[in-house]
Fold:
Amino acid sequence: MSENILLSFNGSKQINTEIKLTGSKSECNRALIISALSEGSVNVENLSVAADTALLIKSLESIELQTSDLRLIDIGPAGTAMRFLTAFLSIQHGKFLLTGTERMKQRPIEILVEALKSIGAVISYEENFGYPPLQISGPLKQTDATVKIKGDISSQYISALLMVAPKLPLGLTLEIDGELTSKPYVEMTLTMLSQAGISHSWEENVITIKPQSFNTSKLYVEPDWSAASYWYAIAALADEASIFLPGLNGYSLQGDSKITEIMANFGITSQFKNGGVHLKKEPKNLERKIFDLKDCPDLAQTIIVVCAALGHNCTFTGLETLKIKETNRVLALQTELAKIGVKLIEKNFSYKLDCSELHFPDQLFISTYEDHRMAMAFAPLALKIKSLEIEEKQVVEKSYPYFWNDLEKAGFSVVTKEK
Ligand SMILES: O=C(O)C1=C[C@@H](OP(=O)(O)O)[C@@H](O)[C@H](O)C1
Ligand SMILES: C=C(OP(=O)(O)O)C(=O)O
Structure:
């Protein structure tokens, strides 16, 4: 049975709460792959409860458990895990059918598959060229150590290759072609590899990892900064806010920690003390007119909805990759923002917000397009709209299963409604 969520916030719009966030799904997915590659010498601490992480754990376990000639791995909607497993399975013994949701079958993977094939992997597209499902026969017999790879579509392809690189007989040299999108995620991969004892060199657009072994080590997964961004958005739309998020540090492997700097523009201060971050709201005139989100695409929906709700006409760049995520996020934002009279207009690789007709109806229904971030980015609008209905309660489970419980804890009225 499918259910929606009805949100409202009664009384004065003051938020005073402490929220313990789950581990970062990006860090956790890397830690799990690195641990599996290390064959037991790398341990993972503070696993995320994100559904995508649970799917990856189950998939890695099922590789061992299945005895059939063709082992089936269904990774559901987990894009990062899909890309990481494609490289991982290419170096395992056996034949695998790697598939996912209908949306996953529309998310491109050609760049990664062709890169792997160019060094000897045996992979075929089972339905449409360039897209999952994939049939992978491993282990690859390496024919080459150098790969030229486009950097501007998804950094996940590059992270996937880097993690298997130390296990390849010839190692790997990646020549990144064009601008690298989502760069902090590649840096996260390399840092976590080095925490597990793997060295690399990165000069200009060339990253090299030689064949080497993992050290005995522990990888600690930090709380999820992308999840934290929704609390910054809530603070930005509330009248008063004091929110403590334990476990988050000023230094993070996650590029989405940039939310502290971005939200400072909205008067949200971040103070790191007592083992976490304290968010406070201070009066501030909104001045910044351009936001470049190329390094932190998962913050795009959060920030765009906040700007729209504050009536801040500004411009966003670096949104190109949003079209191939859980849904076409640009189109989803345009459709849903239109419901409060806001336009997001594409022009010359940038997007301009036009809030001249912004209004808040008493009741609003938000469609979520199987995208957790649509649900979580629009939820803070309950501070502006009397009755906000968000489609598909379960959608948040992908990265933040306790999101609705946490909203309730912070004073929102959260009611489940049958569809
Ligand atoms: O490597 C990762 O963990 C991720 C990289 C990003 O994707 P792209 O590199 O495709 O932008 C991001 O959007 C995704 O949620 C997680
Ligand atoms: C894009 C995302 O995830 P993935 O690519 O792993 O499906 C996300 O979590 O916003």
Notes: The mean pLDDT is 97. The domain at 3-23+223-418 is CATH 3.65.10.10 (UDP-n-acetylglucosamine1-carboxyvinyl-transferase; Chain). Residues 51-65 form the longest helix (15 residues).
